[in-house]
Write a structure and sequence with these properties.
This protein is an all-alpha fold. The protein has five helices and no strands. InterPro entries: Apc36109-like_dom_sf. This is DUF1871 family protein.
């Protein structure tokens, strides 16, 4: 499984707006490239995830701890791929 698919899986698990069914597969894919660039450029991934949920989606549906968990899982994914 490639990084893009794995990030999509993480975002689907997070699923802040509770999408269900077949729509869930593609609901968050629009953010994946930006997430990859953020990590590769050593950007502030938590700020990006907060922006995605709070501004682009339009409301904070999840707790900060959940968003931090998403960040940790994505960063761990990139660490594993370096090895």
């Amino acid at each position: 499984m490639n990084v893009t698919s794995k990030i999509n899986d993480i975002l689907k698990d997070w699923n802040p707006i509770g999408v269900s069914g077949k729509d869930l597969e593609n609901e968050y894919t629009r953010y994946i490239e930006e997430i990859i660039l953020c990590v590769k450029n050593n950007g502030d991934l938590l700020s990006l995830i907060n922006d995605i949920e709070g501004n682009r989606i339009g409301f904070f549906y999840t707790k900060e701890e959940e968003r931090k968990s998403v960040v940790a899982r994505i960063l761990e994914l990139f660490q594993q791929n370096k090895s």
